[in-house]
């Protein structure tokens, strides 16, 4: 006799059925506040934007609150209920890599934090918020305090590695303490990110990869990699915010070496500087000229058609010099069927299967990076098979639909 199991009997589906408070099947969707301090389009903000679009609206009503207006707000309008509650400039523009005990205890900053928390409390009450989901370190602190004071459950979505190679030592100490005190649940964008929190079992957590909408990468891309075809100029790209730890300088140094062996190769740096890092971007333009490769390197600047540009690449490179919390751009490249060369740190090994979907190299090693790129250029069939395997891996593990369902499970666990 065949026994059929209803989809509702799956453990994950049972949890989703209990997404409302006190374990009741919801009559109306749970009102979730998704809070980010910035409206700039960093990696975490793009991941949040993607996530919001794929929530099951019969279960989750996303209410988005940003601490500033900007490009993220522009993209969210018409997608979700959006509110702007402006954060004072001294709090908003403090960079996470400059955080320390002195910046944390400044009297003016402390006063502005308190004032903002009071405004958040009013917002939570006015909009009948049932759950707070914060999306950045500043939002974690502000939203976490407001959640505690209103007895509203709080989920911190950690998209930063809490380590001394990523943040100042005082900030690392403070954030690890707060992780064990404030949130009811922690989502990390990788197992590596969660490990850096040193939770010691005090708080429940879940790793949820920043998935991609695979449909955006189903368009025809470049032809298979053929270095012997004089009509096909090989295109190699690095995608992401231009800043020192993203390793654009390493990419350019590697490009100079690759061009000695494959002089027709074209390199793209896709992205722009954010958060007061424009000086580094200017230095990268100068470095390309100093290396004598200016004609072979294109700086595209900020683009809204990143998926299109990735689909036209032959190889996608990730060159971060510090362990990446996750590495969403790597997933994007794999979704487009591109072989990837990535630095081996942080959450990246959770994405790339070395030798199968791409190649991993040591961080901050231009020689190793150029060698790996040349390995793929010398073996186009291997590169093509890696690209195909990478796309299959994304379909199995890194789609935005999978990410949204996992986040909904986390909501259910907190509210049960």
Automatic annotation (TrEMBL):
GO terms for molecular function: glycosyltransferase activity. Pfam families: Glyco_transf_4, Glycos_transf_1. InterPro entries: Glyco_trans_1 (IPR001296), Glyco_trans_4-like_N (IPR028098). Residues 1-24 are annotated as: Disordered. Residues 1-16 have a biased composition (Basic and acidic residues). Keywords: Glycosyltransferase, Transferase. PANTHER family: COLANIC ACID BIOSYNTHESIS GLYCOSYLTRANSFERASE WCAL-RELATED (PTHR12526:SF640), GLYCOSYLTRANSFERASE (PTHR12526). Belongs to the glycosyltransferase group 1 family. Glycosyltransferase 4 subfamily. This is Glycosyltransferase family 4 protein. It comes from Alloacidobacterium dinghuense.
């Amino acid at each position: 006799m065949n026994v059929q199991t209803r989809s509702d009997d799956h453990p994950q589906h049972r949890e989703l059925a209990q997404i409302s408070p006190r374990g009741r099947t919801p009559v109306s969707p749970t009102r979730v506040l998704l809070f980010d301090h910035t409206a700039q389009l960093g990696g975490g903000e793009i991941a949040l934007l993607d996530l919001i679009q794929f929530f099951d609206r019969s279960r989750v009503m996303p209410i988005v609150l940003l601490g500033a207006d900007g490009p993220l707000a522009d993209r969210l309008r018409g997608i979700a209920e959006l509110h702007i509650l402006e954060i004072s400039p001294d709090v908003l523009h403090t960079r996470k890599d400059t955080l320390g005990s002195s910046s944390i205890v400044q009297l003016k900053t402390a006063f502005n934090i308190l004032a903002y928390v009071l405004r958040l409390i009013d917002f939570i009450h006015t909009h009948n918020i049932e759950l707070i989901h914060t999306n950045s370190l500043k939002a974690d602190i502000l939203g976490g305090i407001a959640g505690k004071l209103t007895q509203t459950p709080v989920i911190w979505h950690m998209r930063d590695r809490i380590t001394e190679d990523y943040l100042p030592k005082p900030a690392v100490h403070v954030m690890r303490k707060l992780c064990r005190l404030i949130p009811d649940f922690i989502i990390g964008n990788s197992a590596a990110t969660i490990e850096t929190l040193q939770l010691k079992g005090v708080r429940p957590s879940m790793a949820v990869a920043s998935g991609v909408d695979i449909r955006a990468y189903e368009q025809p891309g470049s032809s298979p990699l053929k270095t012997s075809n004089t009509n096909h100029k090989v295109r190699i790209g690095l995608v992401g915010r231009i800043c020192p730890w993203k390793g654009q300088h390493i990419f350019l140094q590697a490009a100079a070496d690759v061009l000695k062996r494959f002089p027709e190769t074209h390199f793209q740096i896709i992205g722009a500087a954010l958060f007061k890092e424009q000086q580094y971007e200017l230095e990268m333009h100068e470095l390309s000229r100093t290396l004598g490769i200016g004609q072979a390197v294109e700086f595209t600047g900020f683009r809204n058609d990143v998926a299109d540009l990735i689909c036209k690449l032959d190889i996608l490179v990730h060159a971060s010099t510090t362990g990446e919390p996750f590495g969403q751009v790597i997933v994007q490249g794999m979704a487009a069927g591109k072989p990837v060369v990535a630095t081996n740190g942080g959450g990246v090994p959770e994405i790339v299967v070395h030798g199968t979907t791409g190649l991993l190299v040591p961080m901050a090693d231009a020689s190793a990076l150029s060698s790996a790129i040349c390995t793929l250029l010398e073996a186009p069939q291997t590169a093509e098979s890696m690209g195909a395997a990478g796309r299959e891996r994304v379909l199995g593990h890194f789609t935005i639909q999978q990410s949204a369902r996992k986040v909904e499970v986390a909501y259910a666990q907190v509210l049960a």
